Amino acid sequence: MCHSGDMSKSLPKQLTDPARFFLEPSIATHRQYEALRAYFVEGISSTKAAARFGYTPGSFRVLCHQFRHNPDRQFFAPPAKGPQNSPKSDPLREQIIRLRKQNFSIYDISETLRAAGDDLSPAAISMILKEEGFARLPRRGDDERAGARVAKAAASDHTQPDLSPRRLRTKFGGLFLFLPDLARLPFEVMLKEAHLPGSSQISAAHAWRSLLALKLFGNARPAHVMSSVFDEGLALFAGLNAIPKRAFLSEYSCRVKPDCYPKLMRSWFDECAKPGLDQGHSFDLDFHTIPSHGEDALLEKHYVSKRSRRQKGMLAFLAEDAETRVFCYGNAAVRKAQQNDEVLRFAEYWRERTGRVPEELVFDSKLTTYPNLNQLNLLGINFITLRRRSQKMLRAIHQQPPSAWRRIELDGVSRAYKTPRVLDQKIELTGYEGAIRQITIADLGHEEPTVMLTNQLRRSPAKLITRYAQRMIIENGIADGIDFFHLDALSSSVALKVTCDLQLTLMGSSLYRLLGKKIGKGYDTAKSRHIFRDFVDAPAQVSLTEDEIQVRFYKRAHNPLLLAAGFADTDVPIPWLDNKHLRFVFE
Question: How far apart are the C-alpha atoms of 333 and 559, rounded to whole Å?
């Protein structure tokens, strides 16, 4: 663009309105015309012509070059514009008005007219309705739109699965990797013994397989099931013609009685031990608050660690096997008055299930009380926990002479502070019979020393500290359950009961552990999210024949690990799919 000083040198000081029209054109094509005319007709140099009409020298040379190669261009041709309003004599006007009075949108009206042989665009229909004084319709959901524009999935029915020879593509191909382990479990027997409900169209086994499929495919809440109702692979996994809708899933979880879950949990873990999930001896225990966003007056306030505040929610108690890293117990119906005794209920549950009490329990200081620690000691259960530090206790610790401390070395611990100082004592606690061992640990990277309590009197401090450090695994495991198995999403439009969602999380965790153990190569201890990303989140082509279900996976970087684990040799009959044999093929 030229400067005002250059413009004043090339133009008269005062321009009349007619002169201004030619020398200061406001339309782009007119400005191009006057600049080219000044250069080619008046003989003004390109630099002066560019400055007069507001072009840079370079852009004006480009304009001249284009004009030389296309001298027939139209500078003053009026732009083609459509009619600004539709004629009153439009024969479709009355029909459009009649359809709008039936609450049809402009797109519905356009489709209706096209079906009758009259092609009128939604924009033209909108113009007619605007002339007639109709306001725009409010935004509507799919279920409120005209039926011609909404595709409806078939109602779920376990008596109508399509097992005919055919091919289909599914984004849930990785779910079929869980089928061999799931098929070996007496799933229907377990559900029947737990008295779980079903219906004539969707049995208990089909309902639970549907819920479990959505839980295993952890990047989608059941609230999002409506986007996958047309995926035939997802329905095939459950043994249905179509996956159940969210209304059924919400209603089903409300039909399950609370006393069904302990029976199902016990039989599930007993059966999972057979394929390879051995029962461990040491367990990590913890509470987790599942926050609620509703207005339920019966909910109590609990501390939510990730938000550092107290809010209403459900308090869930979880126990994880320290060796297999599998959730082996869960209770989502813990009340404040009962939470201190939950550790004793777990010990009783484990004795009923296995015939013996747990050998060792590891938990933090807020899980139970000193009298309950005494009960664990009387039951012969070893425990490791922390003690809350009071100011009086800290003063007594700091008054200890240096000779009372001794320095130890921690083996097999990946941390910067491997040589802490410890003060090993036997003390007495209110509510605890006899002496209990207290180990005070300094130089661990904390400002204040850590105080540990245990009834293991002969075990070395280094081993006790190392074992408690491994308790952080349970917190990572719970985080895995929260983030991957979406345990915290109580605001979902699928109002699953918390107890039902927790049971599905326990089952999903076991199946991921079995899959990781089968793959090996470090996946036996990998988080579920890692296994999902590398193997489960995979589309596939499923081919059904008279006696076989072939799942063909496309090329992926981690397919060689599945081949090395023997998945290509899979030949397992699937009972709920007419005993067709499952086979895997890798490209």
Answer: 41
